[in-house]
Every structure is written in C-alpha cells, then in structure tokens.
Amino acid sequence: MKFLLVGINAKYIHSNPAVYSLKAYAGEGYEKEIEIAEYTINNRLEEVLSGIYERCPDVAAFSCYIWNWNFVRELTEELHKIKPQLPIWLGGPEVSFDAEEILRACPWITGIMIGEGEETFRELLDYYKGGDSKEGSIGLEDIQGIVCRIGNRILRTEERAPMDMNRLPFLYRDRENFENRIIYYESSRGCPFRCSYCLSAIDKSVRFRDMDTVKRELQFFLDEAVAQVKFVDRTFNCSHSHAMEIWEYIHRHDNGITNFHFEIAAEKLDEEEINLLGKMRPGLVQLEIGVQSANPETLSEINRQADMGRLEKIVNSIRKGGNVHLHLDLIAGLPFEGYESFGKSFDVVYSMKPEQLQLGFLKVLKGSPMHERAQGYGIKYTSRPPYEVLCTSWLSFEEICRLKRIEEVVELYYNSSQFTHTLSVLEKSFDGAFAMFEKLAEYYKEKGYFTNNPSRVYRYEVLLEFALIYGNGEEGLYKELLTYDIYLRENMKSRPGFARNLEGYKEHFREFYNDAFRLREILPGYEEFQPRQIARMTHVEMFSYPVWESGGGAEWKMEKLPKQRMVLFDYRKRSPLTNEAEVRVVEEA
User: Fold this and answer.
1) Scanning 109, 365, 393, 464, which has its CA 20 to 30 A from the CA of 4?
2) pLDDT-above-70 percentage for the chain
3) What pTM was computed for the model?
4) Do you find a cis peptide bond into 354, omega within 30 degrees of 0?
5) Residue-wise over 232-270: b if at least 16 C-beta within 10 A, else e?
6) DSSP single-letter state for residue 418
C-alpha cells in the first residue's frame, strides 16, 4: 500500500515537521510505503491535485493549520471527486477542536486525528494494512485519538495520552529534503503558561526530550553547518536547567555559521542566563519575545503575569551586548486595549530597539480560551481562517484598518533595517515612534503608495519627502542620514538622487585609495588588492553632520560639524545582526 502525507506550507523555505515526524515514528517497517508531498499555498490547486493523483495513494493524510485550511478543504473536496474510494484523513490544530462539525460539513473526509498524531497514525497504518498490530487485530474504534465515520455515524474514540518525547525519532536523517529550507526542532512540548489567546493554554503537560539525545541531534546540525535551526518549543526557557544546558552546548560547540532561534519569556531570564547569552558569538542566537501588550489590565485579562519593568530591563541588558538578534511581538485586538492604549504599548516595545518589531493582530483560535470568551469581549473576527480580529469593544474596525497600515510601514521602514539612523532622528519630531509611523501611514495612504508600492530604493525618496514636510531638521541633514543609511547596507552602483554631488572630491578620493601605507592601517586584509579594486569593494562619503552617531538616542543633537568628515564603508566586514557595513571616520576635510 501507499500512504501519502501531504504538507501545504506557507512558503517554500518552510518545511512541515509534522508529516516528517509521522513518517519517522511509523518505523522502518513502513518506510517504503509512506511518501511525503510538500507544496505551498501559492501553488495552483490544479497543480497540487494532479500531483497527488499521479502518486496513486491508497490513503492520504493532510496536516491542517490556519494558514492552509481553506486550501486543504477545497483540495480534498476535489480529490474526493476524482478518487471517491480514497480514504482522506486530516490532522493538526485547525481540525482538532471541532472535528465532528468538520466531518458533518465535509462528507468527503474519512476521519480526523486529534492532538499529537505519531502513535495514532502508526495504528491507522496497521488498520489499513489489514487490521493487524502487535496486539492483534485492530479496528478504528480501537484507535485512540480519532474522530471518524463508521457507517452512518460519527465516532469519537478515547483521548490519547501525551507522547513521551524520547520515543520520537530524529527527523533530519536525510538532509536533501531540507536544502535551503528552515530546520524546525523541538526539545519540549507543552507550555506551563495559560495565555488565553494561545492553543498551548489547554496543554497542561510540559515534556522534555532527553538532554543527551538533544545534544547529539544539535551536533548533527552543527556538523552539517545548516544556516538556521528554529526551536518550536512554546516557551523555551520555562525550565532554567533545560535552557542553560542547551545554550551552553551551542556556545561551546559553535561552528561560526549556524544560527539558533528560540521563543522565550524574557521576564523569566535570570542573571546566569543573561550572562551566558552575552558571551555568544554575534548571530549565534536570536530570541523571539512575545510582549503582546504593555497594558496591565490587558495582560491580567489574557493571563500573562508579565512584569513590564523587569522585562524592559532584561531586554535592554541583552540588547546592549550587541550580539543577540531580538524579535519582539505585539498583538492588536486584545481585551481592554484600545487604539490609544495600543499606541502606548507600541512605544514601550519600540523603545527597547529590537531588530524586529512584529505588529500582529489577534487570531481567535478554535479551542483557545479566547474563543470561548470572544463574545463577552465584543470581539468579531473573520469566519474563515485565520480568524483575525475585525473589531472589539475597545477597538473599531476603522482603527484596525489604521493599525494595518501602520503595520505595513513599520515592516517597510523599521523591520527592513534600512532606515535606522533616519528614523532615529525623525522620531524626535513627533510625540513618539507610534505617532511617527501613524503619520507616515497617513502620508502613504494620501499619496496612494499602498496601492502603487514604491521600489526599495524609491522608499528613501518617499521618506525624504515625508521628513521635509513633518520633520524639524534641515533638508541637508535628512539627505545625509538617508545617504548614510543606504550605503550602510549596499555599495550602490548608481548614486541615489538625494545624495550630494561629490564630483569635486574625485581627485581627493583617488589620492586616498592610492596611499598604500595609509590603506594598510585603515583596511587590514586588503593588501592583495589594487587601489581600483579596493575602491570598488568599499565606498567613501563626505558628511557635514555626525550621522554615524545618530542612533545613539535622545541626546544626539542635529548640529553641523565644524569640518566635514570623510567616512569609509567596508563591505567585507558586516554586522552579523544587521548586515550593515563596518564604518570608519577616516579624516576631516
């Protein structure tokens, strides 16, 4: 028989660890009979349908999440039309909490695996192979953790107990399947916290994988020099000893290449953990921290007992180390958080200066406590996945739309890390960062830029237009800030239109690059290159303002220098966190 596990991912670079875990757990006896097919929601449905049909499966099973359920539902309906005898099974969080309702609405679905599926899927294999298992014959009613059709009735079997993490095999024995894709890894399942918007709130057990096994598997990633390993543990540092042992291991065995991503509760970090993080190679670790809100009433209502003062102190301490990529999250649409309150939460998180600030919108997930309480909060949300908030008792639909536009400009201008110094100075002209992005979003809307999205380079021109209207600084300052920002990231082949004309400095630059003795002092490691080559590999620029200091905070003053400075951008030496070129102020002029 052929069993087909289908994963429909959000992007090509993603993989679906669930289907690989099901296959691995089934064991060698089923290895040749199980195939995995991965697609994305961007594939044409006809293309996926024909791909599955051509594989001629005897049983097909689909992994279901909020991002792919609309696609999977339509796909399985069409698949049933062309292969009406094919048993079609579903699994995953999107179908686990109202399985009976889904079976009634989708008569072409055979059954649904509830919760963790490894053991359940293996027993289904035994059933379809002829009803034999190690314990003898097996029927659907004997398989725990499923909801299925038996004749004209829908049967829900006994709930399956949580898995022992140490019984799960390693997923990544075959590296070819994961070339140029994100590697997902779990060292624990479950979460001790009960955040009301999260499905983890209903999983009351936290289980850890054996540490020797974890280290052996992490060493595989290090030996293979994979680019990134993304831990999917719900709260990685819920156990101090577990987190410390893993962080100490990757620190000691760092290969200089691999990056590890963790979702953590920052306020739970202690001094020992913070000190260890401070010793990491820049780029070895990135931390995702779900702040969600800075409103105490909101945090209490969603069951997050966060000490915002402690969280800010810890995040700032990590950030000052300059070696850990920080990704902080906010959620719009939570109870007791109106537009003004959300703006204050945004400013609190923005002041921590993370590399990424994700402005997300509440998803009312089936099975979560938030789903049960949504009506009482006046929360209205989309009927179909991703069940995103439309309005609440505190936040109107018009305000949600405004926040959506703010989210987009934050993504373009802040999270791109392309305008760091310009934004830092421009913010001083507003009552805070939220007010700045709010006004920028209004400007984008007025100019039609959301519809006719400017190119990456033209966004610098747009920000200059905006700064000249709403900023308090001089035109020359903003032009120099944008020039500095653009050359920090890229050695431009074509000089941007807002950059000053440096024709009068050409001879001076030529003399600089021809001074071999001076270059050896300023640019060690370039000895093998000729002056013309070095000039192409680096960039020099003249500045009237000390723009390289402008990221330093409120104390920076927008004053011209007594003399211009020549600044060199070294693109062979880049920050592993921001990808910015190394900068040297080489002389006055």
Assistant:
1) 365
2) 97
3) 0.93
4) no
5) ebbbbbbbeebbeebbebbeeebeeebbbbbbbbbbbbe
6) S
